[in-house]
Amino acid sequence: MTSDASSGSLVKALLPESEMPTHWYNIQADLPEPMAPHLHPGTKEPLGPEDLAPLFPMALIEQEVATERYVEIPEAVQEIYRLWRPAPLIRARRLEKALGTSARIYYKYEGTSPVGSHKPNTAVAQAYYNAAEGITKLTTETGAGQWGASLAFAGQAFGIEVEVWQVKASFESKPYRRMLMETFGASVHPSPSDLTESGRAMLAKDPDTPGSLGMAVSEAVEVAAGDPEARYSLGSVLNHVCLHQTVIGEEAIKQLAMFGEGAPDYLYGCAGGGSNLAGLAFPFIRENLAGAETTIVAVEPSACPSLTEGEFRYDHGDVAGLTPLMKMYTLGQDFVPDPIHSGGLRYHGMAPLVSHVKHLGLIDSMAVDQNVAFEAGVEFAKAEGVVPAPESTHAIAGALDKAREHTGPAGTGPSIVIGLSGHGFLDLPAYQSFVRGELG
Fold it and tell me: Which uninterrupted H or E stretch holds 214?
């Protein structure tokens, strides 16, 4: 879609606090077909609220199955959101020039949050709802550490103890994320650990395993289920997590209008568990269902290609089979991906809602090798001055491929939006490995 935006000089669209979304968008209200229900891991029957009560507060259980189009954001959550929201939408003019493209490239930057990623959008909400029901402890898993750090930050904001199982490969390669979690008061364990029955079984099977998100989920769920004072908190995959992230896309739609843009031609987001992609894409899918024509592309690592190579079927979200069965694109609950640096994308399955919209043909997908992703990340950093999280470099790689297809006068090509889920300041050892040619 051509636009007069290319003739302007605006680089950064900043919404006033008064324009921050006051409601989350629930895509389930607008889908042409409802998604398949989650199933009980034992009975294989659709889950009821009582089945999830040992793990989640009732408010989140209700959001998991909500059908209303918008869910109001509690004022206490909005108050903390205002520390960094609305987040900026930035026109990547220097990148456009470096590429020699006619495309107009924008990135929605979530790295301005207190922990440097999009994860607090749901961590704050989950901590709030748990605190409101008197919960004093939360357990969780984390890959790269963005989620664990976000929940640790949110937990201290609402007076909740947080215990984290971090995938061993990331625990060892990303010590600063662990330090950040501990600074906020969380306790952190490498997963699999000898602290849980499921962890001990995994170590007995493979003492040298690098771990996986599925393994860490099993440990965190086991501890929460066995402690009446604790609940489990998940940083991606589930419907209520995707719901909380939609503040990203809702802001981006308003900010594109500030640039004189309508619906973008292309939108690229990285995809691991699916929450970042959902947060940016779901409001744009709503616009597509109403007549817009944005091509939405989920970009995942070739080392863990659930959307591009997985099967669309029911599967567990964890290795031990403690979680509900969810219909999703999956590589299998036992799949252990290579210990790539994009720890947040090393998940065997994809969020059921993201999987559902993919199955309905509402989004496309592609897979990118980690060296290609880091090459795109370095190119982006040199042009824009922002070092992207390794996860986000996948979305950037997909977008750069599309931008290079379009040459001609600056600003006359298609509009492209990239979801930049966070910064990579604590991932610099991974960039160093790439620069030195040491990545596999």
Answer: helix 213-225
